[in-house]
Amino acid sequence: MGVSLKDVALRAGVSVKTVSNVVNDYPHVRAGTRDRVQRAIDELGYRPNATARQLRTGRSGIIALAVPELGNPYFADLATAVIDAAAHHAHTVLLDHTAGLRANETLVSQGFRSHLIDGLILSPIHLEREDLLHRPARPPLVLLGEREYDAPFDHIAIDNVAAARLAVRHLLGLGRRRIAFVGARRDSRRQPAHLRLRGWREELLAAGRTPREDLVIATDGYDRLDGAVAMTRLLDLPEPPDAVFAYNDLVALGALRVLAERGVKVPEQVAVVGFDDIEDGRYGAVTLTTIAPDKAAIARLAVDRLIARIEAAPERTPPPPRRILPGHTLVVRESTAGRAPHRT
Amino acid sequence: MGVSLKDVALRAGVSVKTVSNVVNDYPHVRAGTRDRVQRAIDELGYRPNATARQLRTGRSGIIALAVPELGNPYFADLATAVIDAAAHHAHTVLLDHTAGLRANETLVSQGFRSHLIDGLILSPIHLEREDLLHRPARPPLVLLGEREYDAPFDHIAIDNVAAARLAVRHLLGLGRRRIAFVGARRDSRRQPAHLRLRGWREELLAAGRTPREDLVIATDGYDRLDGAVAMTRLLDLPEPPDAVFAYNDLVALGALRVLAERGVKVPEQVAVVGFDDIEDGRYGAVTLTTIAPDKAAIARLAVDRLIARIEAAPERTPPPPRRILPGHTLVVRESTAGRAPHRT
DNA sequence: CTGAAAGCGCTTACAG
DNA sequence: CTGAAAGCGCTTACAG
After folding, report:
1. Confidence label for B23 from pLDDT (cuts 50, 70 and 90)
2. 8 Å CB contact between A141 and A120
3. Which of A83, A92, A277 should one mutate to test binding to chain B, selecting the residue with the greatest count of B CBs within 10 A?
4. Nearest residue to nucleotide C5 when comparing alpha carbons to its C1'?
């Protein structure tokens, strides 16, 4: 079917070894030989067969990225950044979505399709530590996101507690006294959002205030609808909050929608802070104040770390797994700062 | 390193052929033999090497999907749907983004990484017909989206002209008389959006109205920012429009943001219709009326068609390429219908 | 600097 | 119903 090394070798009158040397830029090839081989390659339109190379070398040049859902712009942005970072290392990205389900996350982490990929970047939601315990050493795994595991894997995530405290401090600075947290889980044993919730608690305590647990709203997921449902409940409280810190921007946007529906003024009556800095937050009728994780840094660090493990010689002891903390910033917009007067 | 067929064969006391037969569910294997082999497989933890299988069969089980950008929720949704549809055929999806650049789109269509993939689904923006002309027959290609090419490839897209006419008809039915189109291109030779623009023109003419070309606004891209810039220009016109039909929802959302900023009432003063039905449009302060393409159908049809070509016997003449038109609907929301009174 | 040959782990005619 | 063997297209010690 296709043109193989052998065809090129025949045409150039050399062995396949020499052709292989030329194709892989092996330095010690005589210039004349190289030219002759190159000409044969061009004439025949030869292109190396990646599969055969992979079978021989054990490397595919593919890394997998598994996120809960691409429908969340945060993960779409992250995926884009990972694809770009991988391209820098001449790697391609195979994308998986887990729907945040523990079973899917476990399957992926256990090496589903592992023969096809050199490494895996996984952003888990409901995966538990024990799901990770009997994982084979290959392909290497880098974890992303808020969930922390006492397990020997690199983990790239911003400091969620510090970021949450920054958000709550901002709201306290605006004089807000009833600050709700939206995005806890009903099941107290499983708290994917526990770090952001902890930050909310810590900052309130540090300010000498008692965290009001009735202002902690559990949600089913982390989508706009969850934020809308939670906000409705909060507004129906005898004493509604004057601020909302949402687990993420989608939840915050759902809350903003309900506030608009009910005619509640933002930020005058209720201030809102999200988390992720997705683009939607910059274009609503009220733009959204949010925590902006450095997504490019997250992607770059994750890919760099993964590639380093992929390329590590198997006989040497690998570097110990690390927690790496990319930066984050608070981006203040209308949902806490109010709107500049109309340009008319 | 890993456990191979040979190891299993040795342990089960059969030939590799028999193990292969069991692994691939070849029917004619004696039950006793099958059990013995299965036990050996389980004990050794054997898992087939996909790379070796691919080298032998020429099939990887991977299809590539190339979209302009994942940051547009429409493409994120589409990618999700394609991943699901591919999973039905036991295929995995390799994701590429082209940034809508002709060079990237050409590279992908010409078979970049073609040894790794069984087929390609491409949603082009600026690709031209000539870029497609000297494409090798393999891997098969299915095209998506508004751009039409007089080239022998399957093409899955909703009827963009009919959909645009539906949107404009809706606005006309609301009594709007100055209906702008936002999302044309400056360069008149390259009009990715030409079908939706044509629909705008045709429906106005059919209603006995003259399309006002000064209400056709060119944009650099199809993002929120482009919609915001365009809306600003429209509002600064001596006689601003009373309705906007946007190329897509992102552009429409950018326009809505500017309308809110300027204190223009939607839909009373300006009604807005988008295109794509992304989730953001359902949660703004003013929800967005839009054309909803049947994304699941698009993904399913594209994958089905691609898999059929992948599995077609190479010696038989392949089925002729087809244009397939999945359905679409108009979803009416507040940006044209107004808001229901507050629930208080 | 270059060649002949083994082998990565499968699948698949070809026999029996 | 099962086995022995070739071969997919590479890379890479091993020679020379």
Report:
1. confident
2. yes
3. A92
4. A17
Cα distance between the two ends of chain A: 68
Give me the pLDDT at residue A344, please: 42
- pLDDT of the residue at A192: 66
Residues of chain B contacting A262 with CB distance shorter than 8 Å: 342-344
Residue B248 confidence class, pLDDT cut points 50, 70, 90? very high
| CA distance from start to end of chain B | 67
B86 contacts B118 by C-beta, under 8 angstroms:
no
- How high is the mean pLDDT of chain B? 91
Please give the order of strands across the beta sheet that includes B323-324.
A323-324, A154-156, A141-144, A119-122, A62-67, A92-97, B92-97, B62-67, B119-122, B141-144, B154-156, B323-324
Among A279, A287, A335, most B C-beta atoms within 10 A, so best to mutate, is A279
Question: Among A238, A228, A231, A241, which Cα is nearest to A180's?
Answer: A241
Q: What is the pLDDT of residues B307-343, one digit of tens each?
A: 999 888 666 677 889 999 999 999 999 999 988 765 4
Give me the sign of the Cα torsion angle A243, A248, A251, A257.
positive
DSSP per-residue letters across A234-259:
HHTSSS--SEEEESSHHHHHHHHHHH
Residue A309 has pLDDT above 50, yes or no: yes
Helix A295-311 crosses helix A73-88 at what angle (to 10 degrees)?
40
Neighbours of B189 (CB within 10 A): 6
**Is the pLDDT confidence value at B1 over 60?**
no
Task: Please give the residue that has the higher pLDDT: either B19 or A236.
Answer: A236
Residue B161 predicted with pLDDT over 70: yes
- Residues A164 and A201: their CA atoms lie apart, in Å, by 9
Task: Find the residue closest to C11 using CA and C1' atoms.
Answer: B56
Of B95, B282, B342, the CB nearest to A93: B95
Residue from A155, A340, A331, A338 nearest A249 by CA:
A331
Does the pLDDT at position B272 exceed 90? yes
Please state, in angstroms and rounded to a whole number, the distance separating the CA atoms of residues A81 and B260. Answer: 32
CA distance A164 to A161: 5
Residue B209 pLDDT greater than 90, yes or no? yes
C-alpha–C-alpha distance, residues B98 and A9, integer Å = 35
**Amino acid at the residue A229:** V
CA–CA distance, A255 with A244 (Å, rounded to integer) = 9
Confidence at A214, pLDDT banded by 50, 70, 90? very high
Q: Which helix (H) or strand (E) holds B133?
A: helix B129-133
Q: According to the model, what pLDDT value does residue A190 have? A: 62
What's the confidence (pLDDT) of residue A194? 86
Residue A141's φ and ψ, nearest 5 degrees, are: -125, 135
User: Which domains occur in chain B, in start order?
Assistant: 5-48 (1.10.260.40), 57-157+294-311 (3.40.50.2300), 160-293+331-337 (3.40.50.2300)
Instruction: Classify the C-alpha dihedral B38-A101-A160-A287 as positive or negative.
Output: positive
> Which residues does nucleic strand C approach, with CB less than 7 A?
A 13-18, 21, 27-30, 32-33, 52, 55-56; B 1-2, 4-6, 16-17, 20-21, 23-24, 46-49, 52-53, 55-57
Q: Which residues pair with A154 in a beta bridge?
A: A142
The mean pLDDT of A66-72, rounded to a whole number, is 93
Task: Report how far residue B168's alpha carbon sits from residue B291's, in angstroms, rounded to the nearest whole number.
Answer: 11
Give Cα A265 distance to the centre of its chain: 33
For chain A, list the strands marked E by DSSP: 62-67, 92-97, 119-122, 141-144, 154-156, 179-184, 216-218, 243-246, 271-275, 289-293, 323-324, 328-331
